[in-house]
């Protein structure tokens, strides 16, 4: 209840909480309560369809009593939804002014508003403010770097006011849930002012924040873990869908991280095939540690997934087969092509040196992967000999 010398004469129940209030301030501001009271004059009014929590109702109540209310990006959507439900036009007017002068003018407040709106679900009454926040965010994203005056988060290198990185915005929007994130990204792409490489950088930051490195979830129940896996799988599939077409738009190492995530999360065959194909085309950008992907298979004791690496290599080599290269590449870029294949040859041999110690990988799979590397692109056999030596020392008596 709210402290007053007058005795309370109205009870309103929100969820499991009953509020002892006064008719005069509540009914004078709140049209819904006026209507309900005129119909039956109840002293105890229940609002089972109230669209927010008790704290939000208390904000509305304070406003009706003429008390100061605290508004922020964290509660503006919920309070606005509640004010519309309760039909408090004077509060709605105050909220609209706050949105226009505070929320939409601020880069971070617009993002935080979207973040909290996502937790309230897809309520129709929230669509307007969501769309306005998205528009405000995208306007700032496409603002020329020389005109950016607001603060932002950038932890991937130095940021200089004299040379603003074009991807200055990607970390801040990565706090959004998947649905809100995709809506912002789609509107930004529709502006035609965001390059494919910037989209790729945004996706990489989002994936780093949302996808697992090792598939291990600590401190939550099995049911919660299942929910997390389902959510992460949806994030992975969305990221794969959003990757712009063309080689080099995102890094090969990032693509292989997505391959690893697809394996850990049990993604669909379709998603796995798509991402393996993309990652394979840029296999020369990977390191040996990138390829040490654990085997995820029921009943399988194998530590490393050599079959996955074989698929990556196959997709890398297929682009260099006869008829697969554009005419200009067949002549002008042969030196570059040779260097790429030589790099992958050394990568695979070094990888074999690591997995040859895995007692659960058959020698036939090791030999098959070694034979897939075109012999003429091996500059030396040192790493291959080391792999053979490691196998013989560990498993041949």
TrEMBL record:
- Pathway involvement of the protein, from the record: Protein modification; protein ubiquitination
Enumerate the Gene3D superfamilies for this protein.
Potassium Channel Kv1.1, Chain A (3.30.710.10)
Q: Which UniProt keywords apply?
A: Ubl conjugation pathway
Write down the species. Answer: Amborella trichopoda
List the InterPro entries: BTB/POZ_dom (IPR000210), NPH3/RPT2-like (IPR043454), NPH3_dom (IPR027356), SKP1/BTB/POZ_sf (IPR011333)
The lineage's top-level taxon is: Eukaryota
Residue span, NPH3 domain? 167-397
Family to which the UniProt record says this protein belongs: Belongs to the NPH3 family.
Give an example GO biological process.
Answer: protein ubiquitination
Name of the protein in its database record: NPH3 domain-containing protein
Pfam families reported for this sequence: BTB, NPH3
Q: Which SUPFAM superfamilies does the protein's record reference?
A: POZ domain (SSF54695)
Against SMART domains, the record matches this protein to: BTB
């Amino acid at each position: 209840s709210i402290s007053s010398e007058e005795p309370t004469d109205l009870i309103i129940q929100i969820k499991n909480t009953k509020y002892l209030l006064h008719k005069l301030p509540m009914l004078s501001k709140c049209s819904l309560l006026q209507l309900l009271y005129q119909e039956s004059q109840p002293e105890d009014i229940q609002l089972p369809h109230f669209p927010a929590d008790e704290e939000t109702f208390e904000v509305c109540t304070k406003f009706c009593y003429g008390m100061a209310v605290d508004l922020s990006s964290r509660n503006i959507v919920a309070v606005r939804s509640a004010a519309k439900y309760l039909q408090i036009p004077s509060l709605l007017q105050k909220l609209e002014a706050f949105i226009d002068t505070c929320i939409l003018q601020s880069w971070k407040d617009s993002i935080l508003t979207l973040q909290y709106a996502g937790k309230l679900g897809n309520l129709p009454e929230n669509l307007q403010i969501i769309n306005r926040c998205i528009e405000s965010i995208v306007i700032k994203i496409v603002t020329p770097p020389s005109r950016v005056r607001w603060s932002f988060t950038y932890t991937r290198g130095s940021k200089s006011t004299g040379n603003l990185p074009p991807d200055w915005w990607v970390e801040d929007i990565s706090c959004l849930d998947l649905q809100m994130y995709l809506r912002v990204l789609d509107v930004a792409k529709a502006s035609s002012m965001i390059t494919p490489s910037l989209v790729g950088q945004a996706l990489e930051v989002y994936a780093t924040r949302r996808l697992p490195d090792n598939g291990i979830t600590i401190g939550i129940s099995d049911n919660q873990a299942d929910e997390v896996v389902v959510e992460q799988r949806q994030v992975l599939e969305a990221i794969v869908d959003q990757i712009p077409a063309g080689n080099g738009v995102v890094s090969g190492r990032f693509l292989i991280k997505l391959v690893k995530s697809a394996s850990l999360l049990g993604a669909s065959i379709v998603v796995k095939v798509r991402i393996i194909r993309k990652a394979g085309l840029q296999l020369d950008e990977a390191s040996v540690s990138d390829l040490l992907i654990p085997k995820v298979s029921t009943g399988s004791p194998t530590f490393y997934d050599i079959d996955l690496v074989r698929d990556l290599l196959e997709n890398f080599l297929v682009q260099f087969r006869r008829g697969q290269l554009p005419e200009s590449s067949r002549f002008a870029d042969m030196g570059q092509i040779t260097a790429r294949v030589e790099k992958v040859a050394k990568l695979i041999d070094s990888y074999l040196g690591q997995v040859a110690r895995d007692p659960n990988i058959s020698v036939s799979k090791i030999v098959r992967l070694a034979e897939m590397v075109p012999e003429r692109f091996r500059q030396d056999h040192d790493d291959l000999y080391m792999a053979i030596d490691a196998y013989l020392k560990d498993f041949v008596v």
